[in-house]
Specification:
The protein is built from eight helices and three strands. By secondary structure, the protein is mainly alpha-helical. The chain has a three-stranded antiparallel beta sheet. Helix 4 packs across helix 6 and helix 6 crosses helix 7. The longest helix is centred in the last third of the chain and has 41 residues. The protein is globular and about 60 Å long.
Amino acid sequence: MPPDTGGQRGADEDTPPKQRVQDEIRRDIIFGTLPPGTRVTETALATKYGISRVPVREALRALEAEGFVESKPYAGSTVSKIPVDDAEDLFFVREALESATARRAARRAAAQFDLGAPSADWWQARKALAGILDEGDRAVAQNRLELLPELNIRFHLGVAELSGSASLTALLRQIAGKIEWLYATDVDTRGKESWGEHRTILAAIDAGNFAEAERLMAHHVHQSKEGYLDRFASEVG
């Protein structure tokens, strides 16, 4: 079962129907409620999510572009296979991208305190990260590892936001869903260890140690890649 996240994704009444159902279908794919190879139809999904077929159709098109769904003429749509074949490429992109966000976040932290009083925007982003880490720690303590994939991507997007780079944040968002999907498949193996690494990364950012923040983030992503590829090597390439 996907974790109950209190409606943090897509359940807001102000969220457009297409975006809401797109988020819900994506989550059901990531957490295995809709396993790879499952045939999905507009009618069935509209009934499942309590929405009309039009936003479902739009959501399926968007999810196809993201790689979560495959559609063929006259054959309908099916849930894609977990992207183990391009996992190495995704991790390669992540390592470069997130090393940059951590470095920039640490530089920005140092600059904030050099000014004497960090801005309200910076404090808000930093407070959000603290809350995410606390949620993750509770999940680990309670052995509720199914909560970690979403918290994990929220942490990494939070670091990107803390960096102040709209470009890096936008790039990370483009691959966030695939990252969460890969993480969810491996969370029982590396989830606890991986989660604990987040606090050391954030400590380096807080200290304004941009070289260490960059190194720790690169190591964090690299270890995830090595562990994932070791376990799923037979399915890659």
